[in-house]
Specification:
alpha+beta, Glucose Permease (Domain IIA), 3 domains, eight-stranded antiparallel sheet, three-stranded antiparallel sheet, 15 strands, transmembrane helix, membrane
Length: 321
């Protein structure tokens, strides 16, 4: 119930009721409503600023999930790009070198997409830029994989026409990897005797004395005897500019001038020459120049085993000779 208000009339010396006109009543009502609306607006604004509605919470969860999926997609794209680059590197610098084929020109591998706007249908969306960039990356990787696939088709034809050459080129490990103890790879390593960093022109396969050593490709024995530092060593000429050397052997199973096939036993692991432990020191030469043998184990290793071998051989450790 509204309170009745009075005022003191100085002329009549009486308290009289305050009577408001309709205009004042309406103005007062409008003032109350306006004040209520202002406070309501402030409360709603604060609520929307600091508190999330159920719909906003749901949208934020979806955005967070999409951001995570986008990051995962970008990470996978980077991994795919690294794999493609590794395939290209091995294609140009190993397989094509082995088969004496010309490397694929860089402008062919990295050819872009000309002509009309391929991504017009992805424009005018909230995240058009992200979608276009991701689609472009996928297109580039797809194009590179297509070029790589055509390259392998070309190499397959070359392999078929060069069967004898492929049988001659070193392509396996000189000893059974399941009997390995450790590996010291190609490159500068700490010399076990001189205690200085010295170029190690091969790979050391530590294994028990008497472990069989295999010819890594078809060829003929050009040397089977003692060499300073190498101890008992064998050299095989495979033709096509390739020669392999096997050192520190305990004994031979072949003689100079004898022809051998890939996988034939040519001798056994020993500890002769400048050696600090039983192992097979293995070198590969192309055109008289020592090259990393790790690139010639593609016949008897799975991709996973090759990655493990590559990681172990690249460690900066001490050689065994």
């Amino acid at each position: 119930m509204a309170k009745t208000k009075y005022y003191f009339n100085s002329q009549t010396l009486k308290y009289e009721k305050v009577k408001l006109s309709w205009g004042l009543k309406m103005l007062k009502g409008l003032g109350f409503v306006s004040t209520a609306l202002v406070f309501s607006f402030i409360i709603i604004a604060l609520a929307y600023t600091f508190l999330d509605s159920p719909k906003e919470k749901q949208l934020k969860r979806e955005i967070s999930s999409l951001s995570l999926q986008y990051d995962i997609l970008q990470s996978r794209l980077k991994q795919m790009d690294l794999v493609v680059k590794d395939l290209q590197e091995r294609d140009d610098n190993i397989y094509r070198v082995i088969l004496e084929a010309e490397p694929i020109p860089l402008e062919v591998r990295n050819a872009g997409f000309g002509g009309v706007n391929r991504y017009k249908n992805l424009e005018n969306y909230n995240y058009s830029k992200l979608m276009i960039e991701t689609t472009k990356k996928l297109d580039i990787i797809s194009k590179q994989l297509y070029v790589q696939s055509k390259s392998y088709d070309e190499l397959a034809k070359a392999v078929n026409s060069k069967g004898k050459m492929m049988a001659s080129i070193p392509a396996i490990q000189p000893i059974n990897s399941r009997r390995l103890r450790s590996i010291s790879g190609f490159g500068y390593r700490m010399h076990p005797i001189y205690k200085i960093r010295k170029m190690h022109s091969g790979i050391d396969f530590a294994a028990p004395i008497g472990t069989p050593i295999y010819a890594t490709g078809d060829g003929y024995i050009v040397a089977a005897g003692v060499e300073r530092g190498y101890g008992n060593r064998i050299m095989i000429n495979h033709g096509y500019g390739y020669v392999t050397k096997y050192a520190h052997m305990s004994k031979f199973k072949v003689r100079k001038g004898e022809r051998v096939k890939r996988g034939d036993i040519i001798g056994y692991v020993g500890n002769t020459g400048a050696s600090t432990g039983p192992h097979c020191h293995y070198e590969v030469y192309k055109g008289g120049k020592a090259i990393n043998p790790i690139n010639f184990f593609f016949n008897d290793l799975t991709p996973a085993e090759y990655v493990t071998m590559l990681e172990v051989a690249s460690r900066d450790n001490q050689s065994l000779d």
